[in-house]
Amino acid sequence: MNKKSVEILSPPSYVDDVFFDMTRSCLAKNVMEHSHDCIEIVTITEGHGFHCFNGITNKCLAGYVYIILPENTHEFTDCKGVQLYNISCTPDVLDTFGIDSSFWHTCRNAFRKGKHNISLSFAGREFYDLCKLLDAMFEEYSSNGSQRQLHLRSFFSLFFMILSQKFANAAPSPEEEYPMGKIAEYIEKNYSSKIQLDKLAQLASLSKSQLIRRFQAEFKTTPIAYLLDYRVRQAAEILKNTHKSIKETAFSCGFNDCNYFIKQFKKRYGISPGLSRKF
To answer: What b/e readout covers 238-269, taking b as 16+ CB neighbours within 10 angstroms?
Structure first.
């Protein structure tokens, strides 16, 4: 079986040797899987949807910031009013800045090369301030002022420091790094089987209440709600692309009760599974 080819994107322009390019987008359709030959920093300013990083899908919400390193792939799906800023910069951003490395010690992991996902979450006043900074930065980026390059480097330096400080404050201890991502991955690989909260808590070496609290903090939903939502989305894809019956589809996606599946499908999509096939 041939491996699916993934497009590798390059910045269309370069402001200088550190800060390359900036775009502002409203996602009206899915963004297909792709990778970059630079660092891409994506900030979600409005809406919600799903972000898939190296094959693992999680919810994305306003206030989320993703740092996508070279060699990694990502895509956006099922977006509802998602607006975002994309900023691309050099993979050697830490060294190019020429700042004392001890200052960046705690955040260096966020920008080290490799197959790892870095996401940050901003809320309240800090999210408001971040959006105002990005708005001003994009206004400058879109201008042709004589000091454009200098101003953009200043904006980018401030933006980079805010992300670095956020990462430093939120960095988990090594033994606690990304356990909830592993739980989400387990759910997505085994969604068609019986999955109980006890089993998930055991995998994470946590109590059920700890698991729910930590999973909800990262994914803004509970593990069981995440499982249910993932099952419904997989069922929608099966109904769209195959001729399987609704009952067969429900059972193949882990539902033991077809009526319950229909209820959950209508709750998520606003129409019945059968009617969805007509669109």
So the answer is: bbeeeeeebeebbbebbbeebeebbebbeeee
